[in-house]
Design goal:
By secondary structure, the protein is mainly alpha-helical. The protein contains 14 helices and four strands. 40% of the residues lie in helices and 4% in strands.
Length: 331
């Protein structure tokens, strides 16, 4: 968008001039755009090799334990459908966006929900119409206004709590070092993130959420994974999950004594990715209780053919005769 603005062109026109008819806008450009296409654009602009490809999110994939771009754990989903963003996967800081038209790569990470410069909570939608941010569709290349309702995006920021800021700092430190200590174990950041994603989903259940210390506010949104959740939800539940993994697994056991938990509440058996540090603690300390399900009573519905044959076999003559006799007797 900055290059298009410098040449007084629209981003669509610039993409067509640089890459021809290759698909660009019907996908998540930050994650799914071919690195060779970015290098081609960088060559036209005279940039050093690798600098253009460094603006993509694909550099984060090895640090997140993934090599493909299909549903990357830890990266917010944009939900592109026919060039329309259906999910709020792009975060922004209103003050940073007003100062310079730049979107930081770290704003696409699901465990980042606060601006480290201004200390405010990030936003993921227009403050008026709640539309996802899509600056490439801005009118007149104006990135400070919503592309739908033209409302200003730079409004008064929300200051997160100290616990929220502390949790994000712990997450960023583990992201930087690549590992974290959990009790007697030292696990990699992708393994820790996989467990946090499970705890994040478990905290959305009332039987677990209503008894967590510190207490969490009531939740009205439906169940959603970490990468699909809004920033207001992640800023509350993810710090709680980080707090539970601190001094692992003592805090989780203290909570279990106050409100008994089942293993199925913490680990979904249908999930394929279950970190060993979480499975080991759950299997050792939490009971596995089978849910009692009532066997549904199967009602046998007669077929249409059997119903037709039964009607034909009925002898209705005596019934009609008796009713006629009763009518004659009354008269």
């Amino acid at each position: 968008m900055r290059v298009a603005h410098a040449y007084n062109e629209t981003p669509t026109t610039l993409a067509r001039l640089a890459w021809g008819k290759r698909a660009v806008w019907n996908r998540d450009t930050d994650l799914n755009l071919d690195p060779d296409m970015l290098e081609q654009l960088g060559t036209h602009l005279g940039l050093p090799p690798g600098s253009a490809a460094g603006t993509s999110l694909q550099a984060f994939l090895p640090r997140l334990g993934r090599l493909s771009v299909a549903l990357v754990p830890g990266i917010l989903t944009a939900g592109i459908y026919h060039r329309t963003r259906r999910r709020h996967g792009q975060q922004y800081c209103p003050e940073c966006l007003a100062a310079s038209p730049i979107l930081l790569r770290h704003w696409r990470l699901a465990f980042v929900f606060s601006c480290p410069i201004h200390g405010s909570l990030l936003r993921d939608a227009c403050p008026r119409c709640d539309s996802p941010l899509a600056i490439h569709r801005s009118v007149g290349n104006d990135v400070n206004h919503c592309h739908i309702c033209q409302a200003p995006l730079a409004i008064q920021n929300t200051i997160p709590t100290a616990a929220t800021l502390a949790a994000q700092q712990v997450l960023l430190d583990a992201w930087s070092t690549g590992s974290v200590c959990l009790g007697n174990f030292t696990v990699s950041f992708p393994e820790w993130l996989a467990g946090l994603r499970l705890l994040f989903s478990a905290l959305q259940r009332p039987e677990f959420r209503n008894h967590v210390f510190p207490p969490l506010p009531p939740r009205e949104e439906r169940h959603s994974p970490l990468e699909f959740s809004r920033v207001s939800e992640r800023a509350v539940l993810l710090p709680a999950a980080v707090w539970l993994t601190g001094k692992w697994p003592r805090r989780m056991l203290d909570h279990h004594r106050r409100s008994p938990l089942r293993a199925g509440t913490l680990i979904d058996s249908r999930r394929t990715q279950k970190p060993a540090w979480l499975v080991e603690a759950v299997q050792r300390n939490f009971p596995v209780q089978a849910q009692q399900r009532r066997t549904p009573i199967k009602v046998r519905v007669p077929s249409r053919l059997s119903t037709t044959l039964a009607r034909r076999s009925l002898d209705l003559a005596p019934v009609i005769t008796r009713r006629l006799d009763r009518l004659q007797t009354r008269h």
